[in-house]
Hints:
By secondary structure, the protein is an alpha+beta fold. The protein is about 20% helix and about 35% strand. An eight-stranded mixed sheet has the order 34-35-37-36-38-39-40-41, sandwiched between helices. The protein has a seven-stranded antiparallel sheet with strand order 11-12-13-14-15-16-17, with no helix packed on it. A hairpin with a 2-residue loop joins strand 7 (about 115-120) and strand 8. The longest helix has 18 residues, at about 75-90.
Amino acid sequence: xxxxxxxxxxxxxxxxxxxxxxxxxxxxxxxxxxxxxxxxxxxxxxxxxxxxxxxxxxxxxxxxxxxxxxxxxxxxxxxxxxxxxxxxxxxxxxxxxxxxxxxxxxxxxxxxxxxxxxxxxxxxxxxxxxxxxxxxxxxxxxxxxxxxxxxxxxxxxxxxxxxxxxxxxxxxxxxxxxxxxxxxxxxxxxxxxxxxxxxxxxxxxxxxxxxxxxxxxxxxxxxxxxxxxxxxxxxxxxxxxxxxxxxxxxxxxxxxxxxxxxxxxxxxxxxxxxxxxxxxxxxxxxxxxxxxxxxxxxxxxxxxxxxxxxxxxxxxxxxxxxxxxxxxxxxxxxxxxxxxxxxxxxxxxxxxxxxxxxxxxxxxxxxxxxxxxxxxxxxxxxxxxxxxxxxxxxxxxxxxxxxxxxxxxxxxxxxxxxxxxxxxxxxxxxxxxxxxxxxxxxxxxxxxxxxxxxxxxxxxxxxxxxxxxxxxxxxxxxxxxxxxxxxxxxxxxxxxxxxxxxxxxxxxxxxxxxxxxxxxxxxxxxxxxxxxxxxxxxxxxxxxxxxxxxxxxxxxxxxxxxxxxxxxxxxxxxxxxxxxxxxxxxxxxxxxxxxxxxxxxxxxxxxxxxxxxxxxxxxxxxxxxxxxxxxxxxxxxxxxxxxxxxxxxxxxxxxxxxxxxxxxxxxxxxxxxxxxxxxxxxxxxxxxxxxxxxxxxxxxxxxxxxxxxxxxxxxxxxx
Length: 719
C-alpha cells in the first residue's frame, strides 16, 4: 500500500417485489464501535497559505518534525493507543482470526520451491524449509552435480524483527555473491559480499543503497544505486571496487532532478549496462559497454524528447518499445554502432488495439509482452520478421514473461494464472509451439478448480466508457442480490491489477462471497490512454469508475447496495478514501491499506522523497493553483465531512517511505472527529515495518487474517 453488538443502521436497499406494491426497504447492520472508548487525537492549530488560500490542518502535528526518525512522545503515544484499540477488536475475535490464519496456512505449501533456472553453468532454485518464514537459495554445479546453499534468508533474518532481501547477484566467475537487505522496512538497503568458496564474508559493506545490486563483467566490482542522504531518491549509479572504501566509489551517472527515478540493468545478452532515468511518461537512456564501465555513456534517448521507452539488445542491435508515435508504443530496432533516433526502424507500428508492455531478447528470437483489448498476449518474433502469439488455455487470464535466465535458450518462461487457475509456470518451446507445464502452485488443503467460476464484465460508466470488471465466485452463488461481494481496486500509475489467483481469496468465496476487481481508469488494462484518462485533471475518473462498477454489480444482482466490502492499498487506499467520501451508503466495510489519503499535504511537501517524482502523476500544487484546487477537491483527508460512514479498518507502517505513517493516522483522527455514526473505525500501525508490513510469509498471513476477520465480522459472519 491499516465488538460490540450490532444494530440496524439507516442504509436503505430497494428490493424486487413480486407485485406492484411499493418496494420494501431493507437495511444491513453495520459493525459498531467497541464498548471501550476509542482514542481521541488532540487538535492543534495549524494554517498554511497557498495561492491566497488557507489550508487548515489540526492534525498536522502527527507528522514528526524529525522524520524519518519518529520519536515524538505524543505521536508515539497516540499510535500506541490506536494499536491497543485495534487489539481490543481482535481479542473477542481471536478464534475467527486463528481460523482464517489456519486456512491461509493450510493452502500454503510449507516446502514450496521454485522452478530451477540455469545461469552460467549452475542450476539455481529457492525453497522454503517447513515452518520457516523466509526462502533458502541454493545452486547446483551442472558439471559435477554438487549442490550448496548460497543464501539462507532465515539465518540472515534471525536477529531482526523485520528482514527484507532486496536483490542478489553471483559474480561472472561464480565465486562471489552480493546481496542487499534492510531490517526496518524503510527501504534503505545495505549490501554485503560472500565468498562462495569459503562461505566467509568479505570486509566490504556498502550502505545507503536503493536495493538493486549487480557485479561488473570482470567480477571485481559491484554496481548499485546510491540514495541521497535523508531521502529515498537514487542520486547516482555507482561502482564499488571490491576491497576499497565506499568513499572511493566511482559514479557512472547521477541525477540532479528530484522528479526523475534512476536505475540500471544489463541487456539480456549482457553486452551493455543500461542506465535509465525517468518518470512515468518520460524516459532517458544511457548505455555503457559492460566490459568498459569507465567509458563515456552513450545517450540513446534524451528526456527532452518526452516519451517513454523500454530497451534491450541482441545481435548488434538495440530493440526498443517507444510511445513516441503512438501512446500504445511501437516496436523499433537500430544498429548499435549508429543508434541515433533518426536511424530507428519500425518493426511493429503502434495501434489502438495492441498495447506493447515489455520485451526480452534472445539469441534466436524476441518475446514481446502485450495486451490486446484488455487480454494479455505473449508474442514471439524471429529475426526474419515472422511472428506468432502463444495460445493459452483460458479466455481471461494473466500472463507475463517469467524468469528466462539465459540468452541462448530455446524457450520462454511464462508466468500464468487466472482467477480460478493457481499460479503456473510454463516453458514455451518456440520451435514446436508447445507449452510445457513446469509448476502449478499446490494447495495442500485441497482445491477443485471446477467448483469456481470467473467472468469478465463491462460496466457502463457515467460518461459512457465501459469499465472492465473481473469477477470470481463459487458455484452455487446466486445472482439474486442477497450474497455479499468484495470489490478491490487500485487505478494509478498505469498499474493493472491482473485477473490472477489468490489462495487468500478462497476464504471469502467459500463463505458465499463474490470477489471482483474494478479495472478503473488510471490503470492501463485497455491501453496507455486508459492510464492517462485517470491521472492529473482526469483523476476523478478513477473514483467515479469504481462507484459506477459497484452500481453495475448491484444492477446485475451480484450484490445489493450496502452489502459490498471494499479494499485497496497505497494509491488504491486513496481510491478507497475517495469512494468512501463519495458513496458511503454503498459499502458494508472499507479496508484502507497504507492509504495515500493526505494527497494535498503530501504534494505540497517537496522535502518528502517521493513528492517531486509524483507531481507528474498528481500535479504540482505548489506552483500551480489549478492543481491545488483540483487535488483539494478530491484529496480524501481534506474531504471528510460530518456524515455517516461505513465501518473502516486502516493500516500503516511507521517506517513506510512511500505512504508515510501520518497519512492513515490523520485520516483516522479526522474521521473520528467528524463522522456522525457509531460504526467501527480501527487502525493498525506496524511499529517496526514499512509499506509492505510484516516481512515473513506467516507474519503477512497473520496481518491478512486480521483484515479478513474485520470484513467477515462486518457481514455478520463469525466463523
